[in-house]
Specification:
The structure holds two protein chains of two kinds. Chain A has one domain: SH3 type barrels. Chain A is 8% helix and 35% strand. Chain A has two helices and five strands; from the N terminus they run ββαβαββ. Chain B is α/β, with parallel strands linked by helices. Chain B is built from eleven helices and four strands; from the N terminus they run αααααββααααββαα. The chains are: A mainly beta, B alpha/beta.
Chain lengths: 96, 207
């Protein structure tokens, strides 16, 4: 099991990728930048589990906090509203 | 005495005896006959499945309201907090989300219907509906208003998309006027929907 690359507070970008097959990165989050809320532990890779493979080695999973205004440019709620979503490490890159 | 006929209520046996039902009965009887499993184990499992429901989550919330050390454990490790009061969500990676004067949490699974079954039971149909799943991430305040929950602009609405391995339990704010209530009384105020985050806990008057 690999050590987690990111820690709480790190600025990250969710990859803007559209691979074929099962994955658990919601479309509306792809390409967005946010902040690591926490590292959740490492879990079997769902992209492998979907095809009955064992999903090992386990992949670090994080909760990423995104401002609603960044997800939806026409968001009409309050400026401080946020969304948190679970994203696997191979979908994240540092946003410097 | 009735003077009119009633239609028979359909019973389980009235449905077709499908191949899958036959397969289940044959496999179950064979496993018991060969001593692989026992009747008692089956019944224990049935009972465990039937025991899942929001009363479990409500116990955790009521304890968190009453006991600062338990609330602290919920914040650090909600799975351990569940286990410490005899709940056994062994497969569950639980995160407790605390509603405060500054933050209101609401949970959704946009990809399917991830939900903390052992603590809340089976998810309601609306939780699985496309309307809820797509609207609550785009316009949470409108969705909350449809549930009768209106929040000031000074409160952060935080939507949690349960997209992978974690499960979430919202800890609603403790209603006013409940000082001195015991955990059993407090648990009565904690509804399923308040632990998803679409409504507050019941008030004393709402009981």
């Amino acid at each position: 099991m690999a050590d987690p690359l990111f820690k709480a507070g790190d600025k990250v970008r969710i990859r803007d990728a559209y691979p074929i097959g099962h994955c658990r990165t919601p479309f509306y989050t792809r390409g967005l930048t946010g902040e690591i809320e926490r590292y959740c532990g490492s879990f079997a890779n769902p992209e492998e589990l979907a095809y009955r493979r064992d999903g090992q080695p386990a992949v670090p999973l994080y909760r990423v906090r995104l401002p609603m205004q960044k997800i939806w440019p026409d968001y009409t709620g309050a400026l401080l509203d946020t969304l948190e979503v679970e994203i696997f490490e191979h979908w994240l890159e540092h946003d410097n | 005495m009735h003077d009119h006929p009633h239609p028979n209520q359909p019973d389980e046996e009235d449905g077709p005896f499908t191949e899958y039902r036959l397969l289940e009965v044959a496999l179950r009887e064979l496993l018991i006959e060969k001593g692989v499993i026992m009747h008692a184990e089956l019944h224990k499992t049935y009972q465990m499945m039937d025991d899942r429901g929001p009363h479990n989550g409500a116990r955790m919330v009521a304890k968190a309201w009453s006991d600062p050390a338990y609330l602290d454990l919920m914040r650090r490790d909600a799975t351990a907090a569940a286990k410490s009061i005899g709940l056994e969500p062994t497969w569950l990676n639980l995160i407790a989300l605390e509603n405060t004067d500054a933050v209101h949490n609401v949970v959704v699974c946009t990809l399917c219907s991830c939900y903390p079954w052992p603590l809340l039971g089976l998810p309601p149909d609306w939780y699985k509906s496309r309307a809820y799943r797509s609207d609550v991430v785009q316009n949470p305040r409108k969705v909350l208003a449809e549930f009768g929950t209106t929040l000031p602009e000074t409160v952060e609405v935080r939507v949690h998309d349960s997209s992978a391995d974690m499960r979430y339990l919202v800890v609603p704010k403790r209603p006013e006027g409940t000082e001195g209530w015991c955990e059993e009384q407090l648990a009565e105020l904690v509804t399923r929907d308040s632990m998803i985050g679409v409504v507050p806990a019941l008030t004393k008057e709402g009981l």
